[in-house]
Amino acid sequence: MALSKIQSNSYEDTAVHGQRNLIINGAMQVFQRATSATNPGGGYDTVDRFRSSQNNSGLGNYNAEQSTDAPSGFASSYKLTKSGVTSQTSTTSAFIQYFFEGQDVQQLQYGSSSAKKVTLSFYVKSSLTGTWGVALQDGEAGKHNVQTYTISSANTWEYKTITFDGDTAASIANDNSAELDVQFVLGAGSDYQTATTGSWQSGDKKTTSSQTQWPETDGATWQITGVQLELGETATTFEHRSYADEFARCQRYFERIQTDGAGTPIGYCSVRTGSWYGGVPFLIEKRSAPSVTLNGSLFLAGIYGDISSQTPTGINEISKRGCRPYKTSGSYTAQGSFIAFQTPASHYIDADAEL
Amino acid sequence: MDNIAILSPKYLENNSGIKATIDGVEMSVPLDPSNRHYAEIMRQVDAGTLTIQEAD
Fold it and tell me: What is the rounded CA–CA span in Å between residue A182 and residue A95?
């Protein structure tokens, strides 16, 4: 092939190459915490990286799950089913939220005359038709850019694309904190509604007065997949990544340390006569030092005998790379040992560094 | 967003972290301002609505 041919890619050709999608887990492949949850109360309920958020309990009761119902080319979606009726007042809201680290969106060049447009694309399906809000928010600057989309047919997958202008006024800090987020609005009262769409404004607005109030319909469903946010004014085809790739990206924010074998070590331990101190490394370096939760108990396998069913006094010395479970009571034979889970099927450690 | 419910916060050994029940789950929280749970604990402490117990 002539060299001139190799170098003749157009801008459009370049734009559809890899690493376009700024969203992690947009195809809803990774559900480390659970594949379903009944009335989880909001928060990171099931799917990795997408948070069920609310103001003044606007979500109410709902069920979340990984669904195999997905548009062509996708194997999975994130599905919410409303349980009961949650009336929206002026101060309530309910929305699915995705946070970006500031250091991952510097290419948007916000706060300069070169601020870039971005295009959000996704597949959505709901039992309710109507108008729905979607917002970009810059939490640090206290600004929003609200737009809407329409679901035309009930219980039918629809593809949506929305382009947002760049914010030329407020810059985004180049750090590991939450600086920009996308909000898919499920319901919101007047405090969160605006008539101004498509531009950056101050305040916490999420949608318009035309918002479909999903929480007010018992049994209503809403599901999403194929979420992509990319530079430019054109939505390109979804950038599919491997499960392993998405899984590792998700583990920067949340990692469940769980083994499938009773003797599989998760760390090491120094046992003293009246205490023990362990070390558990994380597989992926975290965004920040994570909050750590032990579900169940630990098993210390030592050369002079095993120590079973250990509940630590605490877990400290937590860093981006690992943590130290320890116990300062009991009577043991001093020895070195490795740490495993007492019951691998149901015991685990969660390291949560989500935004 | 709605407040995170934080109960019984207590410093861990050598003030190396905080143990607390957060939204119904017992967690060990590092003293890292970038950690959202620590940030919320300190926000509630600063607001005068939460007190952290000393370590044993």
Answer: 10
Q: Is A293 in contact with B32 (Cβ distance < 8 A)?
A: no
Characterize the bridge pairing of strands A178-188 and A348-352: unpaired
Element (H, E) at A173: none
Contact A154, A195 (CB under 8 A): no
Residue written as token pair 């890619």: A9
Per-residue pLDDT of chain B in tens (56 residues, 90 and over written 9): 777 889 999 999 999 999 999 989 999 999 999 999 999 999 999 999 999 999 98
CB contact under 8 A, A318 and B13: no
With a CB cutoff of 8 Å and minimum separation 6, the contacts of A104 are A22
Predicted-complex ipTM score: 0.96
Question: CA–CA separation, B32 vs B35, rounded Å?
Answer: 5
Q: Are A151 and A130 in contact (CB under 8 A)?
A: yes
DSSP class per residue in A44-55: S-SSSSEEEEEE
Q: What is the pTM of this model?
A: 0.94
d(C-alpha A87, C-alpha A211), whole Å: 13
C-beta atoms of A319 and B30 within 8 A: yes
